[in-house]
Amino acid sequence: MPVTLDDLRRHAVARTLFPLTTLARAIERLGFVQADPIRAPARAQDLTLRHRVAAYRVGDLERRYARLAIDEDCFVNYGFLPRRHLALMHPRTPKRPWDATTTQRAAEVLAFIRERGATHPREVTAAFDHGRVPGYWGGTLNATTHLLDGMHYRGLLRVARREQGTRVYAVVERDADERGDAERARALLALVVAKYAPLPAVSLAYLARLLEYGAPQLRATIQAALVQAREVLPNETAGGVRWYWPEGENPASARHAARCEGVRLLAPFDPIVWDRRRFKLLWDWAYKFEAYTPAARRQLGYYALPLLWRERVIGWANVSSGALGLKAEFGYVAGRAPREAAFRRELAAEMQRLQEFLGSDLVG
User: Fold this and answer.
1) Whole-number average pLDDT of the chain
2) Which band of pLDDT confidence, cut at 50, 70 and 90, is reported for residue 299?
3) Residues 6 or more apart in contact with residue 16 via CB below 8 angstroms
4) CA 127/CA 16 separation, integer angstroms
5) How many CB atoms lie within 10 A of CB 117?
6) Reduced 3-state DSSP string for the chain
7) Given pLDDT bands bounded at 50, 70 and 90, which one contains residue 325?
């Protein structure tokens, strides 16, 4: 039987909303958790993990990070991934090499941190006065902080932990990886497919380009791996679009049916909704992340959380937490909420879970 859009909807939800597990196993299974600093009502990484980790509470990732075999690093975006995947991207060769002065400064800072162990940026700044550099969006940045970012990106440093949200850095000691560029590129692309499948053809190509953020030195090899992936990955046309998914999976399988019977409020970067092209193809409306959109032009709200009911995303919610507790404002694609008693019951249960996750009292 041909794969249908209904099959793909169920597949997209069921394959990533797996049974609750431990934090380490959830990150291993997800492969990558995108990070975002905005708290509305919590950071995206926490909002993503609460649906996959048993008894997860806001901030658990930051509190447990140092004890887990994971790292903050770049992939298709910035986030958290199993440490074993970093060898696929490092040593990372940025598009813009450092000049001699910056290279010398980096060597001095590296020696400083190696001697002291895990080091807060303020300690580095106190020891080195590198002045200011132009900022990305205008203005200037502390040159030493900027240098630490560059050293982290190049794999010279890793984030050992965070203190009140600030990265604390340590020197990286990595064993050499013997895999060739072609093998690394194929493995990176496989991670992308496993994370975001089922994928429309255009999205697969887009994610291959985004991998240049994590492995710019593999650009040409990744594109070659993409050509190969299009030939070997299971795929089928549905709704006039070519879709791809990992070997061994079948979107039409009955095991994907009725895996999600409740209501979930999803992070804007949750794998179910991350791909905006796929989102519109599967749920027939456009979800927009509008935190950086001027208020007068917002249609859904500052930090709208997509609302999943069973295997369909039917609306969104803007949730805020304040002195009086938790407040939620809902919007629905159909103009109103489903009338089923089951939906009201499951929405109340989801709000209770969100309250427990945040440690807040629900109001309104």
Assistant:
1) 93
2) very high
3) 30, 270, 271, 272
4) 46
5) 10
6) CCCCHHHHHHHHHHCCCCCCECHHHHHHHHCCEECCCCCCCCCHHHHHHCCCECCCCCCHHHHHHHHCCEEEEECCCEEEEEHHHHHHCCCCCCCCCCCHHHHHHHHHHHHHHHHHCCECHHHHHHHCCCCEEECECECEEEHHHHHHHHHHHCCCEEEEEEECCEEEEEECCCCCCCCCHHHHHHHHHHHHHHHHCCEEHHHHHHHHHHHHHHCHHHHHHHHHHHHHHHHHCCEEEECCEEEECCCCCCCCCHHHCCCCCCEEECCCCCCCCCCHHHHHHHHCCCCCCCCCCCHHHCCCCCCCEEEEECCEEEEEEEEEEECCEEEEEEEECCCCCCCCHHHHHHHHHHHHHHHHHHCCCECC
7) confident
Q: Give me 62's structure tokens.
A: 């930051």
Whether pTM exceeds 0.70: yes
User: What are the tens digits of pLDDT across the range 132-187?
Assistant: 777 666 666 788 999 999 999 999 999 999 998 899 999 998 877 788 999 999 99
What is the rounded CA–CA span in Å between residue 172 and residue 255? 42
* Cβ neighbours, 10 Å, residue 281: 21
Say which residue the tokens 């298709």 belong to: 76
Place of tokens 């300690």: 123
Q: List the structure tokens of 195.
A: 């994370």
Kindly list the distances between the CA atom of residue 263 and the CA atoms of 21, 218, 303, 309, 358, in Å, as whole numbers in the listed order.
Answer: 19, 40, 18, 5, 17
pLDDT digits (tens, 9 = 90+) for 134-147: 766 666 678 899 99
> What is the chain's Cα-based Rg?
22
Neighbours of 294 (CB within 10 A): 7
Residue closest to 251 by CA, chosen among 313, 198, 202: 198
